[in-house]
Amino acid sequence: MKRILPVLICFAVSCSSMVKSNNNDSELSVRKRASFEINCSQDKLKIIPIEYYPSGLLKYIGVEGCGKRLVYVEKTPGDWVLNSSSK
User: Fold this and answer.
1) Spatial separation of the C-alpha atoms in residues 50 and 39, rounded to whole Å
2) Contacts of 26-30 spanning 24+ positions with Cβ under 8 A
3) How much is the pTM?
4) Model pLDDT for residues 2-49, shown as the tens digit of each residue
């Protein structure tokens, strides 16, 4: 049991870092896409995590900027598509 606990802790920490990294990549991808879709500079966009999968990965991401509001959903891993907008 003493040998298993450190392995489990390491696994949990590793998974947590992987989820955080994946969510950061998703936010960057959505920021770039939204910037193009509404012709708004990336630095003027605010990213708003809306909903997560039970694993902690993002499912819906909101974007606000330049008087617009968008919602993106992950269609397939890494493929974010516009779900709704106030364009």
Assistant:
1) 22
2) 26/57, 26/58, 26/61, 26/74, 26/78, 26/80, 27/58, 27/61, 29/78, 29/80, 30/61, 30/63, 30/72, 30/80
3) 0.78
4) 555 454 444 455 567 777 888 899 999 999 999 999 999 999 999 999
